[in-house]
Structure formats: C-alpha cells, structure tokens
Amino acid sequence: QTVVTQEPSFSVSPGGTVTLTCGLNSDSVSAYYYPSWYQQTPGQPPRTLIYDTSTRSSGVPGRFSGSILGNKAALTITGAQADDDSNYYCALYMGSGVVLFGGGTKLTVL
Amino acid sequence: DVQLVQSGAEVKKPGESLRISCQGFGYSFTSYWIGWVRQMPGKGLEWMGTIYLGDSDTRYSPSFQGQVIISADKSTNTAYLQWIRLQASDTATYYCARNNWNYVLDYYSGLDVWGQGTTVTVSS
C-alpha cells in the first residue's frame, strides 16, 4: 500500500525558517508526482499554497516556497509568522486521476 | 467570483441514504474536474475521488471505490457525493474542490477552489 509520509509535528520560532517534507514509502518523490501543498486551520477549509512542486497559488505570500529536496517534496516557510501556526498537507498525483494526501504536519510557531 | 457552495450539515441514522451537493459559480463548470475530500473528526485529509463535469467521467480512490457514488448534473453546475447506506464511520466533514487535472496531457496542478465543507453526522 502506497503511503505519503509527512512529519507529524514541527515547531519554529517567529521569524525562523522551517522545511516540511513529503515522501513516499515506495518511491522517490519527483516533479512527476506534481506535489501540492495545503494549509488548514481548525474549523476552516484547506487553503491551497503550492501546486506543481513550486508554483504559488494566487495570493500566497512569497515566504512560502516549494521544491524537491533529495527524494522528497518540500515546503519551506522563510520568516515564519504567528498565523502560519496551522496544519499542512501535501498531496501527490498517482496517475489516472488519483491523488493521495499525506497525514499532515502540525506546525507550531512559538 | 469563483466559488463552490456546498449543501448544509446533515444528521442521519446508520443505514440511511444521503446525497450532498457542491454547486459551482463564476467559472465554466463543465470544463473542470471536481474532487471530493473527507476529513474525519480530528484527522487529516483523504482524497475520495473526482468527476469531470463535461461528461461525468469519474475516478475513485481505491479506498472509497464501492463505498460512495460521485455524480454530477451539468445543467445546474452541481456535483454530488452519495451514500446508499450510511455507517457511523462516515461521520466526517466533506469538502469539494476544483481539481485541476488535464487528463489529455496527464498534467496535474492541484486543488485550487474549495467549498466550505459539509459536516455529516451518523448516529443512532
């Protein structure tokens, strides 16, 4: 069974930089998986941050960036702010219209 | 303004049927796919499946194949998620989202516009 892996939790200081990763238990993540990233705060629908590895969605601040690092997709927040305290989910395209989400990373900014 | 508006919260009993909806506004609905995403209480996002509004081509996650039915009515710009027999484990919030999949080129650019979510509670 294919599983998308994310760190369960991470913390960062205000103004700091943090990189969250998104891997696969069965393969290396490359651009062909078209990684996308979503931010969600409790009680709200997700917000799209990044698609196609590194393209920022409309209105997303430049402190959010996406990349491939080694064999994983990565979301980097540079200059973290208090309202970045959220859950972050990656999604990978598995082919034939099927997408798989990771389990999510709870980011604490403190 | 591009938006997806979902139907309201539902409270149902196990064994009952249910259909929830997602209506699109402000864009050419029949040119896009709509995806459905489940979020169980306190848990993460799970991709359930997707439908193309132009011809109702539907793809399911293996985890949800046979458990739900995804359909659409292009005359009303509406996508649906349906259960024939609900179980307590279907209790969750369900989101629809515009799913940017170019199936001709097999190019995927993620979910961009999200509905507000529909909370479904199944309890005896």
Please give a structural write-up:
The complex is a heterodimer of chains A (110) and B (124). Chain A has 110 residues and is mainly β. Chain A has one domain: Immunoglobulins (Immunoglobulin-like, Sandwich). Chain A is 0% helix and 54% strand. Chain A is built from no helices and eleven strands. Chain A has strands at residues 4-6, 9-12, 17-24, 36-40, 47-51, 55-56, 64-69, 72-78, 86-95, 98-101, 105-109. In chain A, the strands form two sheets. In chain A, strands 2, 4, 5, 6, 9, 10 and 11 form a seven-stranded mixed β-sheet that branches. In chain A, strands 1-3-8-7 form a four-stranded antiparallel β-sheet, with no helix packed on it. In chain A, strand 4 (36-40) and strand 5 form a beta hairpin. Chain A is globular. Chain A starts with a strand and ends with a strand. The model of chain A has no long low-confidence stretch (mean pLDDT 97). Chain B is globular and about 45 Å long. In chain B, a hairpin with a 5-residue loop joins strand 4 (33-39) and strand 5 (45-52). Chain B has strands spanning 3-6, 10-12, 18-25, 33-39, 45-52, 58-60, 69-73, 78-83, 92-102, 107-114, 118-122. Chain B has 124 residues and is mainly beta. In chain B, strands 2, 4, 5, 6, 9, 10 and 11 form a seven-stranded mixed β-sheet that branches. A four-stranded antiparallel β-sheet of chain B has the order 1-3-8-7, with no helix packed on it. Chain B has one domain (3-114): Immunoglobulin-like. Classes of the chains: A mainly beta (110), B mainly beta (124). The A-B interface holds A 34, 36, 38, 40, 45-48, 50-52, 55, 57, 87, 89, 91, 93, 95-104 and B 33, 35, 37, 44-47, 50, 59, 61-62, 95, 97, 99-101, 103, 106-112, 114-117.
